[in-house]
Amino acid sequence: MAEERQAQGQQRAREHQPRGITYQDFEGLRPPVFTTFPEPLAADDWLRTIESKFTLLPGLTEQEKARFAAQLLQGPAGAWYATFQAMQQQDHVVTWEELRTAFRAHYIPASLMEQKQREFRELKQGSRTVMLYVQMFIQLSQYSPRDVADDPSRAARLLQGFDPTLQTHLGRRYQSFSELVDTALDMENRLRVANEDQKRKRQASSAQGSSQKQKANYQQQPRYVIRPNQSGWFHRAPQQQQYPAYRAPTQLPAPRAPTAPGPGNPCFNCGKTCHFSRECRAPRRIQGPTPAGGSQQSKPKGNTPRKGQVHYIHLEQIPVGEPVLAGTFSANGHPTVVLFDSGATHTFISQSYASKHGIKTSCIKESYNISAPGNPINTNLIVKRLLLNIGGEDFIISPVVLPHQGIDIILGINWMNENHAVLDIGSRTVQLKSNVSGKILKIHIPSQKHIEPTVNATELQEIKKIPVVCDFPDVFPEELPGPPPDRNVEFSIELVPGTAPVSKRLYRMAPDELKELKTQLQEQLDKGFIRPSSSPWGCPALFVEKKDQGGKRLCVDYRPLNAVTVKNKYPLPHIDILFDQLAGARVFSKIDLRSGYYQIKIREEDIPKTAFLTRYGLYEYLVMSFGLTNAPAFFMYMMNSVFINKLDKFVVVFIDDILIYSENEEEHKEHLRIVLTRLREHKLYAKFSKCAFWLKEVGFLGHILSEKGVAVDPNKVESVLNWKQPESVTEIRSFLGLAGYYRRFIKDFSKTAKPMTSLTKKNAKYTWSPNCEEAFQSLKKSLTTTPVLAQLDVTKPFDVYCDASGKGLGCVLMVVAYASRQLRKHEANYPTHDLELAAVVHALKIWRHYLLGNTCHIYTDHKSLKYILTQPELNMRQRRWLELIKDYDLEIHYHPGKANVVADALSRRAHCNVIEARPTVRVLCCEIDEIELPMEQLAELYNLIIEPTIKEQIITAQKQDKGLAFIHAGMDEKKRACFTLDDQGVLWFKNWLVVPKDMELRKRILDEAHTSMFTMHPGSNKMYQDQKQKFWWTRMKREIATYVSECDVCQRIKADHLKPAGMLQPLALPA
């Protein structure tokens, strides 16, 4: 027994022995994760929250605090911490104080703190209630602790900001902040009760008063004035104050000293007589006057039906061209078409919409008699509570249910009054003020043709036939419904410290491009993707051809912005790791998002950086644009956050491509439903025409996936597999050069290639034997099977060798894949520089899934390509290709042509020769011998002299020009020393041919120099510099300038390189 007790005592001692605090203990407190900040204040709030969590775990060391906090930094913040950690000394352990100081310096700039301090010092109650003013006071006071160092200072500062009328009644100074707040709440109630008493007295005597007195009865209620704006429609704005002004009633007693609670002194908050309101523990009750038509309708006596009115209950009833504000928002998480109707007295909801989404309706005793188009509608159904999200802010509505309403929700005048709505039809914006947070929202509403995500009728029929997918037609709209919703992640653009705004001049566009530009700008404005800008930033806009559906895509040359942007190193997944997760998969589905970048918002403070220049003004993107350097990495981060707990289980994501895989159809049904539900919840939309479902074999990232495993896409090795049999020694050497470059990967290479090698010897007869064919096929097989294509080391940079020739393009990804193709008809006309660049673009396109997100080195034998990324002047073709190149982290290196044998061999394959096709000399001579034509050798000598006829005309005109006779006569004088005569009697001025005063001759010279196919309309300076090297006449520069200024083509096409003229200033009126 003694031993038993001893063992129990030791066990208890071990249980009570203190142990160290682990990260699991800290994680149990649920500390928030920090990725990036929608605004810098969020970073300050995160720091305060983390420090409050630390206080719950006494005993944490400074190093442990820093280590635990670092685990909560993820995404862009995690990348920042990695950089911060790398800058520390090798053995140094970061403390919490060091991490906090560095974090504040990076994420909370001093300028922002000064701004918040200034807001706090200028804070006034204005039209806010006392409680809302106190809440804002407490929130902003944390940024200016010196101003509220003690309780009396806080009270004095709060008292200064109260409404002047309320300050008069509060009177004295207060030593306690809580006492001042309680007294202010009591006084607010007193003033409200006194004002209501006066109102009732005035209403009682209004029958005997004049109409002027009747109007005065309502001066203390918030009123809204409806007035037309410039567009001819109407919008609401508060007349003076959005809350009732405090007025001193004539009978209001002055504040007196507090007395003991009793029957005559009830609590103003709960009505009980056992305490004062400042001691009341019940929730504060803020009672403001309810605006007419508010959400809490006054209950009529008896069973008299409530009256209401609505103008439109179907969108089809709205006349074409009628100014209307309707958009798609979220109600209880469902996409909802909402109409802002200032003519509707109440807020209404469609009965069919409520039934479809399972929204509970309630029956009330008093029915509504609604005056609607057609016949009046009687209803006694309402929805007591519905959460409507507009602009990221939640609003609670209690709509009346209409049985035949076609619009999902109609927001009437009662809701607009409650939320201080200001409608502006001209700019299609709605301004709202949240009663909860006091935040002022300004939402842009797209035009009516974009108000709901519609599905193409043909695609809808196809969707209905697909299991599971048929339940999610809203995930596959024909167009994006509008701007993306607010998410917990927004795209940010971090700049290198000390960067000044950069602006470049806009690119010229052809007339048809300008027409297309105007159309696309209007479409993106209507959808809410862009807005007019006044930013100091500006990058030029341009068009690129769409690959899948033709037409032009509006893009922006963001090279200046990308050069000063801090690169986001968020990793893109490697395909070999992705495919390792597919073991045992037998059923596949593939989903491709629709305009994925446009489904992500840009952080508000970074929007001006995306500004782009057009012929029709400066605009900026509200959504993530193509061409931004960090866009692929951030989109990958967003997609991972959406499917974070499903990745590598049954989902693989690569940027905007989603692959769902399962072992059987039953599992796949559940997996597909989960993925589509996630897309619906996060309001991400897919393009149905690029999706595929319920497949046994699917192409994904250059591979063919099936139940047998992962196979190489046949198109990937088609260039080597389809290499035709060599027909000459030159073609054999080309093939053996390619194979020999990788001979260390091919077993017994010399032995295998010996039959072919023997044909390349000097004086060897060319005979293609079966042994040669066997060696040829064996080498092709060895080049396109493992281990060559399987040697993918993702830890090292990729090496891409590119080459172009007059026959085709060739490239090799060392040593993952080979590719070559023959030149297209129009590519045969490319200059050498563009042809070599086309080989680089070809490699980037076909190996995008390997190279995107990885460092790669491009090797080319065209040295000038090294400078393409910094070249200031680019043609339209180069601009289009640079839009693709900017997505990659690459360096271009010069590689001599003799060393670039692989890509050179691929580009010079015989089947690629589309420029020249001539038989070999040996074959041609044999054919001539068979014909037995007689051969006769003749020799004739020809001399062809080509002289410009314009020079002959000038020489002839010189002899006929009497004005040049004075020059001939005075050539011996010093002032004529610059003129000389050659052996043929032609007059020269220094080294320039003198053109006589013959206007037709001079016009022909100017025409040749300006409008011919070799000159292409140069400017006056360029044209003068060219012509003065050959010709001279008096006032030559002036005549050239006049000629160019009168050129009709130049005036219509060329843009002025001047800043736009300012506003015209009115002339002063005569005295």
Automatic annotation (TrEMBL):
<feature type="compositionally biased region" description="Low complexity">
    <location>
        <begin position="204"/>
        <end position="216"/>
    </location>
</feature>
<dbReference type="InterPro" id="IPR001969">
    <property type="entry name" value="Aspartic_peptidase_AS"/>
</dbReference>
<dbReference type="Pfam" id="PF03732">
    <property type="entry name" value="Retrotrans_gag"/>
</dbReference>
<dbReference type="Pfam" id="PF08284">
    <property type="entry name" value="RVP_2"/>
</dbReference>
<dbReference type="Pfam" id="PF17917">
    <property type="entry name" value="RT_RNaseH"/>
</dbReference>
<dbReference type="InterPro" id="IPR043128">
    <property type="entry name" value="Rev_trsase/Diguanyl_cyclase"/>
</dbReference>
<dbReference type="GO" id="GO:0003964">
    <property type="term" value="F:RNA-directed DNA polymerase activity"/>
</dbReference>
<feature type="domain" description="Reverse transcriptase">
    <location>
        <begin position="525"/>
        <end position="705"/>
    </location>
</feature>
<dbReference type="InterPro" id="IPR000477">
    <property type="entry name" value="RT_dom"/>
</dbReference>
<keyword id="KW-0808">Transferase</keyword>
<dbReference type="InterPro" id="IPR050951">
    <property type="entry name" value="Retrovirus_Pol_polyprotein"/>
</dbReference>
<dbReference type="InterPro" id="IPR001878">
    <property type="entry name" value="Znf_CCHC"/>
</dbReference>
<feature type="region of interest" description="Disordered">
    <location>
        <begin position="1"/>
        <end position="22"/>
    </location>
</feature>
<dbReference type="Pfam" id="PF17921">
    <property type="entry name" value="Integrase_H2C2"/>
</dbReference>
<keyword id="KW-0863">Zinc-finger</keyword>
<keyword id="KW-0548">Nucleotidyltransferase</keyword>
<dbReference type="InterPro" id="IPR043502">
    <property type="entry name" value="DNA/RNA_pol_sf"/>
</dbReference>
<dbReference type="InterPro" id="IPR041588">
    <property type="entry name" value="Integrase_H2C2"/>
</dbReference>
<dbReference type="GO" id="GO:0008270">
    <property type="term" value="F:zinc ion binding"/>
</dbReference>
<dbReference type="GO" id="GO:0003676">
    <property type="term" value="F:nucleic acid binding"/>
</dbReference>
<keyword id="KW-0540">Nuclease</keyword>
<keyword id="KW-0695">RNA-directed DNA polymerase</keyword>
<dbReference type="GO" id="GO:0004190">
    <property type="term" value="F:aspartic-type endopeptidase activity"/>
</dbReference>
<dbReference type="InterPro" id="IPR021109">
    <property type="entry name" value="Peptidase_aspartic_dom_sf"/>
</dbReference>
<feature type="compositionally biased region" description="Basic and acidic residues">
    <location>
        <begin position="1"/>
        <end position="18"/>
    </location>
</feature>
<feature type="region of interest" description="Disordered">
    <location>
        <begin position="194"/>
        <end position="224"/>
    </location>
</feature>
<dbReference type="Pfam" id="PF00078">
    <property type="entry name" value="RVT_1"/>
</dbReference>
<dbReference type="InterPro" id="IPR005162">
    <property type="entry name" value="Retrotrans_gag_dom"/>
</dbReference>
<feature type="region of interest" description="Disordered">
    <location>
        <begin position="284"/>
        <end position="307"/>
    </location>
</feature>
<keyword id="KW-0255">Endonuclease</keyword>
<dbReference type="GO" id="GO:0004519">
    <property type="term" value="F:endonuclease activity"/>
</dbReference>
<protein>
    <recommendedName>
        <fullName>RNA-directed DNA polymerase</fullName>
        <ecNumber>2.7.7.49</ecNumber>
    </recommendedName>
</protein>
<dbReference type="InterPro" id="IPR036875">
    <property type="entry name" value="Znf_CCHC_sf"/>
</dbReference>
<keyword id="KW-0862">Zinc</keyword>
<keyword id="KW-0479">Metal-binding</keyword>
<dbReference type="GO" id="GO:0006508">
    <property type="term" value="P:proteolysis"/>
</dbReference>
<keyword id="KW-0378">Hydrolase</keyword>
<dbReference type="InterPro" id="IPR041373">
    <property type="entry name" value="RT_RNaseH"/>
</dbReference>
<feature type="domain" description="CCHC-type">
    <location>
        <begin position="267"/>
        <end position="281"/>
    </location>
</feature>
